[in-house]
Amino acid sequence: MVLLTHEKTIKKFIENTDEPIAVVLGKYITVGLGAVRCLGRAKVPVLWLDSSSKHVGFHSKYCTGMVCPHPRDNPNKYIDCLLQIGSILNEKGVLFPVRDVEVINILKHKKQLEKYFFIPMANWEISEILINKKLFYKRLEKLNIAHAKTFFPSNVSDVEKVSKKINYPCVLKPSFSASFVLDFNTKAFIANKSSQLINFYKKALSKNHELIIQEIIPGNVRNMHGLNAYYDKTFSPNGVFMYRRIREWPHGMGNGCFIESVKIPELEKIINPLIKNIRYYGIIDAELRKDPRDNEFKLIEINSRCWMQCSLPTRCGINIPYFAYLDAIGKNLEKPKEILENIKWLYMWEDIRSSMKSILKKDLSFLEWIKSYKGEKEYSIFAKDDIIPFLYSLIPFYQQ
After folding, report:
1. What's the confidence (pLDDT) of residue 80?
2. How many domains is the chain partitioned into structurally?
3. What stretches in the chain show pLDDT beneath 50?
């Protein structure tokens, strides 16, 4: 039995809570810690599960941390662990996955888990359209939603044909990114020439990944934008938030390590019809890139879960994880107040690496870098009211 060593801890945690427990699933620190703080500051009791005991986030005052089996390496034991936790809860908890690997596992076992947990997101058959990039881009083609030119090769021969007509550099993406990241420690491969594209395809195919080939939309990092929201079961958005990237890491195919809140109504006009068409409900993080060739926003992807910078909307007046929690337990959603603009979110460790590389390339001056930090900021790990995770993040062997 997976849970036996933790049962006393869980029961003690349950005894001290009056509200349904939120269970955050996954190790990515900036996502999980953001979700934990969004929920914890709203007085929601939070249990955080991950496969590593040396987890910076477990030291947050807003959660109780617990080690569990790895969702990809031991999926059956992982689900068994969740079921055992659910069996000792006084009332249904609410699940919040922070990576696709957790999303896939809980949705494929949704019927079992719903006995003990609310899962505020659409069933697998619908959510897969967002998670599976092949299905996603085919749906965008069908709905005539602007996106990067995309090819769907079935074999090496198809890749060789594409390699002769696509512009370089181009990107090779997996249909399912969760396992790809675990296998190769990157979200995608960037190919600079035909032979490299073919070799990357063979390398990914050796691990049984289904792949797509896509053009890279030109422009700098500030062309990247995002829209976040919680869509309810009527497929209506509750609290829409938008942002723009300032810097990213790694360069070219990374995550936003320094972003700022903005308001661009055009983004909602692109995302809302798609969500209604596929009948999705739940949290989303949509990424779009403005194409300088035609000045049009092109949809890159939509994550159907909490995302890296999920604490920024809360800082700006929209607590999206809390909206999902309230809707799951049947309470009225709180209407968001005025949304603050020009607030920045910063993941300092990655932003330093990104900035140093830009300075060395002479794309950024030292003075411009220092000036960019002016203004109100939300930090990924550091928080005055929850300082311990930041202190542990300074210890080299602790996982972030």
Report:
1. 96
2. 2
3. 1-4
